[in-house]
Amino acid sequence: MTPTKTPIALGLAAAVASFMPAPMTFAQEVALEEVVVTARKRTENLQDVPIAISAIDETTIQRAGIERAADYIGLVPNVTIVDAANVGDTQVSIRGVVSTRDAESTFAYVVDGVLSTNPNSFNEELFDVQQIEVLKGPQGALYGRNAVAGAVLVTTKAPTNEFEARIGGGIANNDAYKVNAMVSGPIIDDTLLGRFAISTRETDGFYKNIFTGEDDAVDYLEDTSARARVIWNVSDAMTLDFRGGYSEVKGGAINFNAAFAIPQFVEVFGAQSYFQDVNEMDFRYTFNTPGENEQETLDFSVKMDWDLGFADLVASVAYNDLEEYLLSDGTSATFYGYEVTPACQSDRETLNSFNREDLFGPLFDPFGVLPPGADTDFQGVYGPYTATSCDGYQYQERNQEDLSLDARLVSPGDEGMRWIAGIYVAEIEREVVVAYGADQGQGFRRQPYVAADGPNPTDLLFWDDFDTTVYAAYGQLEFDLTDTLELALAARYDYEDREVSNKVPNVNGSGLNINLPGKINPALESNPAGIPDRDDSFSHFQPKATLNWAASDNVNLYASYGVGFRSGGFNSVGTEDLLNFWFNAGFGGAGEAVDAQLLVTDEYDKEVSTAYEIGLKSELFDNRLRLNAAIFRTDVEDNQFFEFFAGPFGLLRSVTTIDEMYVQGFEADFTFLVTDGLSFYGGIGLLDSEIEENRNRPLSEGNDVPQAPDTTGNLGVEWVLPLGSFDLVSRLDWQYVGETWFHTLQGEETPTIWNAFFGPGFNQNFSRSSRDAYDTLDLRIGLESEHWMITAWGRNLTDEDYLQEVIPAPEFGGSFNHQSAQRSYGLDFSYRF
């Protein structure tokens, strides 16, 4: 019996039919275009490479509006990103192995074949880019330093031997605008070719400082970047590729709100907000200290390709220089360090909970700022990043200068045995500053140390110079065992020599902070003659074996085993002494009552990962459907994990290690070309992870690995409809990220500093501190012709309200939380000459 069609069904069918390109039939001779990648340091078809790769070509970059790293990460299953504290501070999780603040990255970032040693460069503006490749799984054998989780390869557009130019720009909500331009062509016939591109953008951001009334002071961004590339065809056999870049970035910094996670406080104060679900926070940005992040980056590289006949010699030299500082409000007001300073007393006269509920919310729910007085001093619950000067300020620097050399021989790609052999050398100098001091309402000197008679004197200072020398040798052999079976063996040996010298002056603090009466670095108490230099070396052998079988003309199967290595390193001197005094028993300080039993030291071990993978790559239905999938497991020893500590001293950033953990899972992605103009695409990633051993936080054993959501996915459609001399291009993207934990502790109660003030029982509980699952929807509709393009776009169209990051601080008894971007929309244009 034929079912009766309702009018609604008929109407929907007619509507869909009216929007579909005609004729809608599989008889059309269309097929997916070949995707060429360089994952194994030679050009190959994506489907022939036995590595899980997501390749994003120039067309997708343009039509998806990819301008920064976060724009393409959502298109890659089992890869997530956090972009929170400052512009360059991105944390990328690839298959559950996440990059770490204040440590080396977990993935190699390679631009035009040159490895970047500066982790901040990953979050640079992406303009004039040809292709992006995301490789998953350990890639240390070929890509080296710290590629324990994978590699990201960016290829910029090369200079052309014919003149071309482009100008573009756009406007958007939040008073955002951007302008970019490019010019390319021959400088000397076909011998010397040049390309220059520049981009500038500015936005006020989504959020407003309700204390100052400024709507361009929280998550604002100003970015101007320029890139030049020159290719010199020295001869038929030799090419030199020169690349230089410069950028200036200004933006907001440390835009967090705090949430308590102490159930016992609920009983004391009668307010549920002391044990809060971080996803239901009422965010208020009320800081009186300007949140500033300024970066200046200069990079230069030259790469030589020389055909020697038996092999190509590929050698590159790269130089990078970054200078960056952050200035932000402080965290320690609740601990009354600056309670009796004139600035704090003066602020509390007017900026208290009775006069300014808009700043602090209902009294003691959870914060309460009381007027000054004998009965009210040391009685408030202020919270961090407030409108008062009672919380002090923080100042940070991340400066790095590095020089690297990479040279390799690459055999021809059409031989039965193919090989690569290379060496890598790098010299890296990094300066790290974390300072905490008094806000006296007299402005701020943006420098590591401010003397006691200065406007913002320093009371706690970590200031170190790190010098790292890297040596490595690597190679790969690929054998055609049969016409359909390939065996690849790769290996790398890395040796890193690390030295650190302390630059903290041997002086006392200002005396303004009653919690910090002594030296400005606690390590000076036990080293009165000065803090000695430290040094150590780390090395590891990283093998990889891959078997690749062409099961048919359109189906490849592969299996691989690989080892990754990330060098150990040093926390700032004084980390161990400070934490022992405040949180651990046996050291004569407040830690006697807390007894957190932390095992955080001034140095941390190297990280080693071992990965197993089985994968499928296929092109089906006459190459209309590209379907790739993989299952994998990664075991990690001494995973480097960022820990944040807040207390009466202010704040402290450090790196600890998770002794043993594993991540295993499945991922798949597809592209389906329905007709010449209509395609569907998507992917799914599933993870299962567990902390197996963690001596620093033994109660966390059995918990999920931080920043390893169990499900990620994306689904999209692109439709190109010819309309005479131009095309109507529409693209819809849906992205999903599952529930995410950001700490090893996920509900297990541990002691806090409040036990030193109120007695035992005031323990933290992070069961409500995971980030909820979220999904976003993006839409782009535009017109494209041979010379021009105009596109209307919207991101997060449903205005999904979700967190970007949660930073738990267990010994404080709460977390520091950062919002994500809200709905944005705008109009872009470009014109090509």
UniProtKB/TrEMBL annotation:
Kindly indicate whether the keyword Cell inner membrane belongs to this entry. Answer: no
Tell me where in this chain the TonB-dependent receptor plug domain is found: 46-151
For the TonB-dependent receptor-like beta-barrel domain, which residue ranges apply? Answer: 292-797
Q: Read off the PROSITE patterns from this record.
A: TONB_DEPENDENT_REC_3
* Keywords (A to Z) from UniProt: Cell outer membrane, Ion transport, Iron, Iron transport, Membrane, Receptor, Signal, TonB box, Transmembrane, Transmembrane beta strand, Transport
The superkingdom of the source organism is: Bacteria
Record membrane topology: Multi-pass membrane protein
What GO biological process term is on the record, naming one?
iron ion transport
Q: Which InterPro entries does the record match to this protein?
A: Beta-barrel_TonB, Beta-barrel_TonB_sf, Plug_dom, TonB-dep_rcpt-like
**CC per GO annotation:** cell outer membrane
Where, subcellularly, is it found?
Answer: Cell outer membrane
Any keyword Oxidoreductase? no
Note the PANTHER family from the entry.
Answer: FERRICHROME IRON RECEPTOR-RELATED, TONB-DEPENDENT OUTER MEMBRANE RECEPTOR
- Similarity-based family: Belongs to the TonB-dependent receptor family.
This chain belongs to the protein called TonB-dependent receptor
Its source organism is Pseudohalioglobus sediminis
